[in-house]
Amino acid sequence: MNDKTILRYTSNQRTNHWLVAILFLMAALSGLALFHPGLFWLSNLFGGGSWTRILHPYMGVAMFVLFLGLVFSFWRANYFSANDRLWLTRVGTVMRNEEEGVPPIGKYNPAQKVLFWVLLICMLVLLFSGLVIWRAWFSAYFGITSIRWAMLLHALAGFILVLSIIIHIYAGIWIRGSVHAMVRGRVSRAWAKKHHELWYREVTRDETPERPISKKG
Amino acid sequence: MASQDIIARSATTTMPPSVRTQEEVAKLIDTTKCIGCKACQVACSEWNELRDDVGHNLGTYDNPQDLSADTWTLMRFTEHETDAGNLQWLIRKDGCMHCAEPGCLAACPSPGAIIKHVNGIVDFDQDHCIGCGYCITGCPFNIPRISQKDHKAYKCTLCSDRVAVGLEPACVKTCPTGAIVFGSKEDMKEHAAERIVDLKSRGFENAGLYDPEGVGGTHVMYVLHHADTPRLYAGLPDHPVISPLVDLWKGLSKPLALLAMGAAVLAGFFHYVRVGPQRVEEDEHPVTLDPAVHEFDPSVHTFDPTKPGGEDRP
């Protein structure tokens, strides 16, 4: 064991993540403004209703494109593996901050993997339904029934996305050290071992396996 | 019109002023009397100062081809062959139906951009319109159009400005055959009933009034020779309703989604209150061999009996 921290996210990955996060925040706030009358006041953040209507799709497209960067970075680590099913059945234990019987997991736990794929699906639905209802450019090419379906799916996918991100943000608050991992990129060895033991073993495998216990021997 | 006369307002969750009552008005369009002269189109264009672009003849009498931000009413011509082999020229003046339950208003996200007056007129306030086109999605009759000039939605106002000062709509005033009449909704229904009796006596057995229930009735009604098949009249919907998709999108899902998002935030908060954060307890993993802490103060020496040599110097 040594005291070196472990790199979890490169600076490019962090930048990518936070760009997506900022764009998500903007797209979500402007989308919510158009979704529920009780939240229409959020449109003031973007310069009024018309500006919200104009900007929202561009924010969304930018978010999607940048999200693809995250997908390319992380999709391999989000493949489901054998332990994942067992972990998911023990998710209640995890929620109680207990560890007994929770199998070790890789770089991402199964809940994070589910989140990853849910986000990807939502983003795809949002993109394509969003293009259909984008009056300024594309709506003219679609019939009214397609537009109505797209409206509904867009709202639904947006809702699931917002809900997922609420959970994602809370998980960051709950699991101490994970926000720091995404801000500064590094995690402590103890953190890696506790939360992602298989990943921890993987990244430390290359190191000298049997370090002398003391330099002085 | 005074603000008290508005009884429904888009994207508004509280009740607008509803104390004052006023008689509901209606425009009755008798397709059986219409000669297709398009005077109503011209009157609409003149009164509302609208000048649509000159289009092209596409082989029909419809001119222009479709409603637009500059054409709020349009005669639609249909050549219909009856079972008896007679040709009928069905002419319908298309435009906003001024539904009692307007789909446009239900879909609109901008507070006050669409209002319904107590007399039944559904009006767009372009000053509040944000140009999203949700009204188009919500409308069962395919009426609103977004202007490419200012990206605001436009449609027939039922000449709310004229009606407010006791005048009939411009199209009504100009109609040379009396095919378009205007008055209280009750009077118009009565008038229609008389017309229908007359039409039936002259062989139009299916003559009837088009005042569709699905949208709560309309404030523009038609007398049709074929009230059993409104779709003959250039696709007038047989049973117009606000699409269930729109209903779901702008109805139940709105409060439920908001509730679920709020609940998710609360669930997180109370999880934190009850269970608390997961910290990595460095003690949990016996990293007793970790010399890191000692490097801060070289003068501190510790004795570790588990180690050969016992003492660990940085």
TrEMBL record, chain A:
Q: Which InterPro entries match?
A: Cyt_b561_bac/Ni-Hgenase (IPR011577), Di-haem_cyt_TM (IPR016174), FDH_cytochrome_b556_subunit (IPR051817), Formate_DH_gsu (IPR006471)
Topology in the lipid bilayer = Multi-pass membrane protein
What are the record keywords, sorted? Answer: Cell membrane, Electron transport, Heme, Iron, Membrane, Metal-binding, Transmembrane, Transmembrane helix, Transport
Q: Which domain of life is it from?
A: Bacteria
Q: Which residues form the Cytochrome b561 bacterial/Ni-hydrogenase domain?
A: 8-185
Q: Which cofactor does it need?
A: heme
Q: Where are the transmembrane segments?
A: 20-42, 54-75, 114-137, 149-175
Entry keyword Translocase: no
Asked whether the UniProt record includes Heme among its keywords, one would answer yes
Main subcellular localisation: membrane
Where is the protein found, in the record's own terms? Cell membrane
Against Pfam families, the record matches this protein to:
Ni_hydr_CYTB (PF01292)
Family per UniProt? Answer: Belongs to the formate dehydrogenase gamma subunit family.
In Swiss-Prot or TrEMBL terms, this protein is called Formate dehydrogenase subunit gamma
Q: Which organism is it from?
A: Pseudomonas tehranensis
Query: What is the phylogenetic placement of the source species in the record?
Result: Bacteria, Pseudomonadati, Pseudomonadota, Gammaproteobacteria, Pseudomonadales
UniProtKB/TrEMBL annotation, chain B:
Ranges for domain 4Fe-4S ferredoxin-type come to 25-53, 87-119, 120-149
Entry's InterPro entries?
4Fe4S_Fe-S-bd (IPR017896), 4Fe4S_Fe_S_CS (IPR017900), FDH_Electron_Transfer_Unit (IPR051555), Formate_DH_bsu_Proteobacteria (IPR006470), Formate_DH_C_sf (IPR038384), Formate_DH_Fe-S_su (IPR014603), Formate_DH_TM (IPR015246)
Q: Which cofactor does it need?
A: [4Fe-4S] cluster
Q: Which UniProt keywords apply?
A: 4Fe-4S, Cell membrane, Electron transport, Iron, Iron-sulfur, Membrane, Metal-binding, Repeat, Transmembrane, Transport
SUPFAM superfamilies reported in the protein's UniProt record = 4Fe-4S ferredoxins
Pfam families from the UniProt entry:
Fer4_11, Form-deh_trans
What is its subcellular localisation?
Answer: Cell membrane
- PROSITE patterns assigned: 4FE4S_FER_1 (PS00198), 4FE4S_FER_2 (PS51379)
- State the protein's name: Formate dehydrogenase iron-sulfur subunit
The encoding gene is fdxH
Q: Where are the transmembrane segments?
A: none
Q: What is its main location?
A: membrane
Cofactor binding note from Swiss-Prot or TrEMBL: Binds 4 [4Fe-4S] clusters per subunit.
Give the protein's function. The beta chain is an electron transfer unit containing 4 cysteine clusters involved in the formation of iron-sulfur centers.
